[in-house]
Amino acid sequence: MLNELTFFSAQTTALLAMGVCYLLLFTELLNRAVVTIMLASGLMMIGTISYEEALIAIDFNTLSLLTGMMIIISIAERSGMFQYVAVWGTKKVHANPVGILIVLGCVTAVFSAFLDNVTTVLLIVPVSLQITQKLEVNPYPYLLINIFASNIGGTATLIGDPPNILIGSALNLSFTDFICNLAPVVIIIMIALIWLFVHFWGPTMKASEANRKLVMSINEKDAITDFKLLWQSLIVLACVISGFIIAEEFGMENGFIALAGAAVMLLLYTFNLPHLESNGKVEDVLNHVDWITIFFFTGLFIIVGALEVTGFLVEVGNYLVEITEGSLQKSVFAILGVSAVFSAMVDNIPFVATMIPTLKTMEESLGGREAMMPVWWALSLGACLGGNGTLIGASANVIVAGIAAREKRPIKFLRFMIWSIPVMVMSVLIAAVFLYCKYFL
């Protein structure tokens, strides 16, 4: 009886910690890293999860992958390559407002597939605002497509969005796995998004010939601040992505490849510099790593680990199997819909982190890992695409809203939902049709 009571108490405590975590993250009363580290420490102090179990729960491959890519991108963006591409694409469509909308959508989606969404919008949105200001056109549709394309594009690859990093690390999936299974539907969704925007906004997008000439006069080469660093960045990025593709063949973890690429990038960036200057540059790069996210993940892994070791996630998994009647098809569409709705309301990272061990408990009932892969792809699609549902659905949304507000072009929560809900629903429906045709037709 005592053991049962102790078990129940530990499970309730772990569940309460996750509930408090969600509440504090939603209300933003505290920094999210402080929230998860504080709660994780408390769970270890009272014995809900042991120190050894907490270490096992932390996914160091995910942390390594995030840290390595943050370092690489922090250095690469200093070359100006990303701004160059945006301006170059704008001039290729002869500063046509509708053409620019399409270019910025495509550039944002492609960049988001290989960078994190926040970095992408921080690079692209200022360029979008600069171009629309010169053209004297309404920037609102351009800001919207930056948001939507960043979340959609990030769905396509292993490194494009944190939920994919979590899923890929937990299942030991390769970069190629994500490209082959998710990139096709992402392309279809992007085509639908661009058509939707061009259809509704296109007729109102007009710019004078004088303003178009003003944009055409921008020299894209001025965006490149360091040509040597540009080529070094391109080579390292190419090697890292190639490493992701062949990692499975050599039994290497993606986190190791990202950290190795980061080390090479730091070496090239500081090569032949005096000791003090070299140290200063390394410190500057490391200061641009999003350590808040790294520590947020660390604490979150421990909280989810507590739910797992107390048996709560096994019970949830059994319940999901019961309500879907052990049907793979029902499970796929249930997970897709629930993850999309949930991710529109709160941060999708804790949701996915909680769902991963839960879904693992369902694998045996649904035929094993290979048979259950459609459910995992549904989780990825729902969590990433659901971020477009509201202004707080993804970090990129909040960042763009902040930039727009500073430029006196505020994006209102309810006005945003007039577009965000239809875009999210359209994206999820396309994903549902895609999954059905691929696995059940």
How would you characterize this protein structure?
The structure is a single chain. By secondary structure, the chain is mostly helical. It has 2 domains: 2-57 and 291-394 and 410-439, no CATH class; 63-158 and 185-287, no CATH class. 77% of the residues lie in helices and 0% in strands. It contains 21 helices and no strands. The protein has helices spanning 2-27, 32-45, 51-57, 60-76, 81-92, 97-114, 117-135, 140-153, 162-171, 175-201, 209-216, 227-250, 254-270, 275-287, 291-309, 312-323, 328-345, 348-360, 373-386, 395-406, 413-439. Helix 5 (81-92) crosses helix 7 and helix 17 runs parallel beside helix 19 (373-386). It is globular. The chain starts with a helix and ends with a helix.
| Number of separate structural domains | 2
C-alpha Rg, in Å? 23 Å
- Helix/strand structural class: mainly alpha
Name the beta content range: under 5%
Low-confidence stretches: 1-5
- Average pLDDT: 88
Proportion of residues in helical segments: over 70%
**Number of DSSP helical runs:** 21
- Described by its quaternary structure, the protein is single chain
Give the H and E element order.
HHHHHHHHHHHHHHHHHHHHH
Tell me how many strands there are. 0
> Which sheet architecture does the biggest sheet show?
none
Distance between the termini: 51 Å
Overall body shape: globular
